[in-house]
């Protein structure tokens, strides 16, 4: 079990530390953790946010546990040297095209959602976000106009092949859950979305047992707040999935609770909280490590087939929350390390 640990910037090392404690506590045979530098800290040490040595570790590992990257003091750098390129580069380099972002309300947390408890209590959804295409990876540029003004541009595109492979992930996920798939696009305006929608419909013929619906992304943002319990699996593109998953996190209660798995074909995956480096609370023992701890559960499930251990971790987090172990993000007083302790005790 060779696992790369890339803690990164800001709260990344703080939340990763607690997640690694939980992983080690399981005492799994053959566990081999290898640390690597990513993000702003890697740029400072090596002049690049994703150094070759880190990439080599990523290639040699069975799975990657990723904290977070991002450092506003790097905002002046050319884009290819910015911290965020570490996570984007790993996703692209390793072909991690399928990002799974589950969101469900833990028992006892209904009152901590930004939504009314009876609305929040029904949330149990999975966002399947395409991660290798869209406006993220199209041609981009900034040009100076003849009048001295500037124009920035980013090319949004999806090929039918790219849509097909993520659609299959969405349909299969729905088969394993409640059999409902909602494809989110903006086909009323974007040609990219027309290809997306046509292709999802084409793929749906292979999944007659899944109920497919389509929704425009603006309406989806609204429905996610109005009636999130109606969603089972959402499949969507890179940008829409990024935005909707942060929104879903507040429906659940905190961005500090949402884990994610980024999968290639096969079992290799990168596991990370959906949140970023949170510079506003970094170094203050204020970050909630639960999203990263839950990412370890996803790592054990999706890369190693260790369902029992995954469930043990999820149960320990759920029990801690039921017992009122809340960080500042949930209106409580528990610090990062104390939340880690609380989860470990219950494990
Ligand atoms: P963010 O997710 O880092 O923070 C948004 C807000 O949520 C902040 O107020 C933060 O304090 C809070 N928050 C986030 N995680 C938390 C946690 N575990 N516990 C408690 N509160 C938490 O988003 P941002 O502020 O927009 O971005 C900061 C940096 O992180 C940027 O450089 C951005 O590019 C980067 N980022 C990286 C990733 C990643 O590494 N995958 C993801 C998102 C953002
Ligand atoms: C995420 C982040 C990243 C994204 C950034 C940091 C590149 O917001 O993992 O959700 O947009 O995918
Ligand atoms: Mn995001």
What topology does this entry show?
Elements: E1 2-8, H1 12-25, E2 32-35, H2 40-46, H3 52-60, E3 63-68, H4 84-93, E4 98-104, H5 117-120, E5 124-130, E6 140-144, E7 150-154, H6 160-175, E8 180-185, H7 191-204, E9 211-216, H8 217-226, E10 233-236, H9 238-252, E11 259-263, E12 269-273, H10 290-304, H11 307-322, H12 336-346
Parallel strand pairs: 1-2, 1-3, 3-12, 5-10, 8-9, 8-10
Antiparallel strand pairs: 4-5, 4-11, 6-7, 11-12
Helix pairs in contact: 1-10, 1-12, 6-7, 8-9, 10-11, 11-12
Bound molecules: nicotinamide-adenine-dinucleotide, 3-isopropylmalic acid and manganese (II) ion.
The site of 3-isopropylmalic acid (IPM) has 6 residues, from helix 4.
Site (Important for catalysis): 136, 186
Enzyme class: oxidoreductase
Function: Catalyzes the oxidation of 3-carboxy-2-hydroxy-4-methylpentanoate (3-isopropylmalate) to 3-carboxy-4-methyl-2-oxopentanoate. The product decarboxylates to 4-methyl-2 oxopentanoate.
